[in-house]
Amino acid sequence: MKVATILTDLVEDVEVTSPTEALEAAGHEVVLISDSLDEVKGKKGTIFEIDQTIDDTRLADYDALLIPGGFSPDQLRTDDRFVQLVKDFLQSDKPVFAICHGPQLFIQTELSNQLQLTAYESVQPDLRYAGATVTDEPVVFDQQFRLVTSRNPDDLPAFNQAIVMTL
């Protein structure tokens, strides 16, 4: 299966590398997508080579979506192209995986009030105010939207297991 991963500068490095390793070990292809083909630099200095731009990304080409955290999601949610892609995935019955600050993007989709999820501690109130049902647990699975969310890098082992099992 092919997993679209959306990111930009200041993404949380390990929230890209760890799920990517788990997905690839399970035989899935991970494609890094940003607003341009320029390299993306993580918060800890990891350089990520971008495979494709958002303008060339189509829902039909992917089986799932991964949204890593850090400061990247806050930047991506101001770009309607990324918001629309996330909304399309949520409405498509294709799995969506988001960790840490990643669920911030759901607020702009106007679907938050239908979602059950978790997120980084400081993001949880924003999601509640947007109408989401927020639980403070390592992994939350929303069956209706095939949405898997986690809170922070400490949750990566459980998150990685959940996303691989979902595919």
UniProtKB/TrEMBL annotation:
Domain of life of the organism encoding this protein: Bacteria
InterPro entries: C56_PfpI-like, Class_I_gatase-like, DJ-1/PfpI
Alphabetized Pfam families for the sequence: DJ-1_PfpI
DJ-1/PfpI domain ranges (all copies): 1-164
Alphabetical list of PROSITE patterns matching this protein: PEPTIDASE_C56_PFPI
Similarity comment: Belongs to the peptidase C56 family.
UniProt cross-references to NCBIfam families, sorted A to Z: PfpI
UniProt-recorded name of the protein: General stress protein
Organism (species): Enterococcus canis
